[in-house]
Design goal:
Number of domains: 1
Shape: globular
Number of strands: 7
Radius of gyration: 15 Å
Order of helices and strands: EEEEEEE
Strand content: 35-45%
Helix content: under 10%
Structural class: mainly beta
Distance between the termini: 22 Å
Largest sheet: 7 strands, mixed
């Protein structure tokens, strides 16, 4: 057998568009993570890019909900993200982990992973429809 040269996955899930602010939670330019903002500009989570170069000109991503956020993890909610006291997890609303996706040009249903979504508010997915998409 030869090596795999390409492939795709058909996935069903809740997908939400979001804006990206190329600064970290403290307002500094940062290449480790960026803010996810709702369409009205409210802080909604963090995206860890797979490649910083892919985010240089990108302002919109699509967030695919994968699982509930784990509250007892080595990566803490970044201080200042939701204006809570450090370590005060009881006041947080439910959050999710997911994939940051980019819609491929000239295709309404095919996406490519561009990062990891963390600490995104579950409420951002309220009213969202389940759809089928293709990941490459």
């Amino acid at each position: 057998m030869g090596s795999v040269s390409s492939g795709h996955l058909r996935v069903r899930g809740c997908l939400k568009p979001a804006n990206i602010d190329l600064v970290n939670v403290n307002g500094q330019i940062h290449d480790e993570h960026y803010l996810i903002l709702t369409t009205d500009g409210t802080k909604a989570g963090i995206v860890y890019p797979d490649s910083v170069a892919e985010f240089d000109d990108r302002q919109i991503i699509y967030c695919l909900r994968v699982r509930d956020e784990v509250h007892h993890t080595k990566i803490e909610v970044p201080y200042g993200l939701y204006d809570i006291l450090y370590g005060d997890k009881e006041t947080l609303e439910p959050m999710i982990m997911g994939l940051a996706l980019s819609l491929l040009p000239d295709d309404k249903n095919t996406y490519q992973r561009v990062g990891l979504v963390r600490f995104m508010k579950l409420s951002c997915f309220d009213g969202g429809d389940i759809s089928e998409l293709i990941l490459i």
